[in-house]
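Q: Could you write out the predicted structure for this multi-component system? I'm mainly interested in how the pieces pack against one another.
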Amino acid sequence: MKQNVSWTYSSYRRKQTLRNWTVMLATFFCAYWAGISCKVDLDALRAGIPKGIEFISYLFPPDWTAFADMAMPALETILLAFLATVLGAFLSLFFGLAASSNIAPRWLRNLSRFLLATERSLPEIVILLLLISALGLGPFPGVIAMAFGCIGMLGRLFSDAIEEINPATLESIESVGARKLQVIAYGVLPQVLPSLLSNTIFRFEVNIRLSVLLGAVGAGGIGFQLYYSFQTLQYQRATTAILITLLLVFLSERLSNSIRKKLSQEAKL
Amino acid sequence: MIEVRQITKSTKEGVPILKGISFTITKGEFVGILGPSGAGKTLTMRCLNGLTRPTSGEVLFTDHQNNLVNLTHAKGRELRKARRQIGVIFQGFNLVKRLSAIDNVMIGQLGRINLLRSLFYGFTDDEAMRALAVLEHLKIAHLAQRPVGSLSGGEQQRVAIARAIYQQPSVMLADEPIANLDPTNARKIMQILKPLAEQMPIIGVFHQPDLVMEFCTRIIALKDGVVVRDGDNKMTRSELIDLYGAELSEIEASQRILQPV
């Protein structure tokens, strides 16, 4: 049956194809250009492969005797991440409340959201480097940097969870003559608790990885061991540090997943 | 006692929804507000405890101690003080789902107790016993420790009523309290409310003319933002047709289907 339409499938398809190819070619062109400015040298890559393989052989066997030396730094990394997460989550709660439209006045909500976004765009390593120049090397600036680094992400996630609360529930608590703080204690906190905990535990997992990285830049822990071993050419010792790092990350991920699974069942209520 | 004097309410765009509503509710009354969808029933209820402020007119509330509060202008402490004495139950129950039934009942006294103590859920055993007694009275004491989200609609509405009773109000507002319930539960809730009205007047918005005629002592009918009828609890069929128009057949149909035999 002939229909009265102003387009044909083939012309539509031509337009789509033209668009797809344009995007694809533009991407390749940009990548090529980036390759030139990064001095990509395929010959160097070819020559580097055997060197790399040779280097890997330096890494083995791992230096098991270093294991004992690294137990304490590994624990330090965990504690660093833990302390930073607890501290950061606590601070994030206040920012989260201040950034929620159903709790805070509009100006405060917008201001808090702006501050949170600013913090998110600031990499933790920048915060750490600033703090190191003020506080010197060591785990303490690491904790502060990571705690501060939590706020952008956790504060935002908390306030998103808080804004999802049914406004009728909060209104019904107000209707008995309750004050704002009571509305928060009875209407907000119990309702968002599973989601707060779940996000916080996820952040703990992130902080474990981060504390390895920050350790290398001076915050101590297993990250510093890794960095130091490489610097002093003790490659087999470095392998031990890498294995311990893998173990930490793997375990924290498993732990976080299993706890969060339980919490998400809880949250369905 | 609540006196509503010529309240009006318009939307932000200036469209009038309530066009001058007046009535007075006194001791011992169980008032049912009826009316088609969009008549302004819920909005009227919201004006009664200051959740919505009317554009003009006044809502005057006399509390236990015979203090007169103008709810239209009350703010902050004065509004909270008045609200303590106004129990409200809602269509959606609006309880805190993850808190237990007993904690939800305790919320009823938040307006009265010390702020610091309340923030840490520092209720005394005495207070808990009183709350439990109310739950017992409504036959749901065995659910006291269950999170409210895990209860059925009928049970949740009982918790909400328990909270309102525990609040010891001088008047109770009920915004479509049985609209989300099946007919058996709806009737049970009405049976709970009826004797309660002897202690505190109850004003409720309802969608079931038959239940209202059976349980309420007075019917106020709203249509297009005005009171079209205010009187005893008997409405004839032709009055109902006048009030609801085409909607009446829908209401009756849903009642026929759901009516317990």
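A: Regarding packing and overall arrangement: The domain at 67-267 of chain A is CATH 1.10.3720.10 (MetI-like fold).
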